[in-house]
Amino acid sequence: MKVLIADDDQISRMITKAAVEQSGHECIVAVDGDSAWQLFKAHSPEAVVTDLMMPGLSGLDLCRAIRASEEDSYTYVILVTSHGSRKDVLAGMEAGADDYVTKPLDPFNLHIRLLAAQRITSLHSDLARYRSALTEQARTDPLTKLHNRLKLTEDLGNLHSRADHNYCLAMVDVDNFKSYNDIYGHQAGDAALVAIAATLASEVRNSDAVYRFGGEEFLLVLDGHSAAGAEIVMERVRSAVHGLKIEHSGDPDGVLTISAGVSALTDAHRSGTEQLLREADLALYAAKAAGRNRVTLASALPHGPE
């Protein structure tokens, strides 16, 4: 465990440092509160042993700064007081300290508290990993492993909030997929969706994103593209899916294909996300009506966006 010691008294620092290292921990030493804060930000120690009264930031100020900076991590703070008065201890706990020791420092007492610190910070680290995994799981489609509608809503909100930033949406639907499921069964249908999802993801840039929109529908967010550029990308995607040659006796082409509708947020067309989704959906519907296995731009539709 990495432990930061903050104390302006040289003798106290030496005693505390020896006790920390004797307990088997890595030690970082600060000579005042200001340098302690800088070292904390640079090294992110799991535990801090800080004197109450120091030049610059006091021990209480350091506690408050540490607590205010924490997000998923947790730092165990041990306050060192000269007399261990109830007033000092209470002030320390209210400022965010977890425990306290008194001067002169007893190495055994510090060792016990560092054991507790190690246990608590380890638990917080585990919880942070679990939260991260659950957050990712909640935003991932379990079948295709693509992002889901929840993640799409968040990402579109962030993307749309960037002023003067252009992007395109491509709504994609697998053609005649109901008949595919009827002929080949749902297991084959799931396998086909997984293969198509992987193809969609492999045909776009890392800066773009692919989401499972629902059922056999997918949505691609093509960042920074014009409508013409997005059309080129989606033609490549459509061709790649056709190239999978997933047999489909119920489709005129004999294989599974996709249709796509593309809408664009441009300088001349600053629509909201719901409107852009609607435009992409209408373009997709037009692609289906025109014979499927094609890409249609919303701007090419009658009364489409300029």
Shape: elongated
Instruction: Describe the strand arrangement of the main beta sheet, using strand numbers.
Output: 2-1-3-4-5
Q: Can you write the helix and strand succession as a string?
A: EHEHEHEHEHHEHHEEHEHE
Strand content: 15-25%
Q: Give the termini separation.
A: 60 Å
The residue fraction in helices comes out at 40-55%
Number of strands: 10
Uncertain runs: none
Structure annotation, total helices? 10
SSE-based structural type: alpha/beta
CA-based gyration radius: 30 Å
Structure description:
The chain is 48% helix and 19% strand. It has 10 helices and 10 strands. The strands form 2 sheets. A 5-stranded parallel sheet has the order 2-1-3-4-5, sandwiched between helices. The protein has a 5-stranded mixed sheet with strand order 7-8-6-9-10, sandwiched between helices. The longest helix is centred in the middle third of the chain and has 32 residues, at 107-138. It starts with a strand and ends in a 9-residue tail after the last strand. The mean pLDDT is 92.
Quick description:
This protein is an alpha/beta fold.
What descriptors fit this protein?
306 residues, 5-stranded mixed β-sheet, 48% helix, elongated, 5-stranded parallel β-sheet, 10 strands, alpha/beta
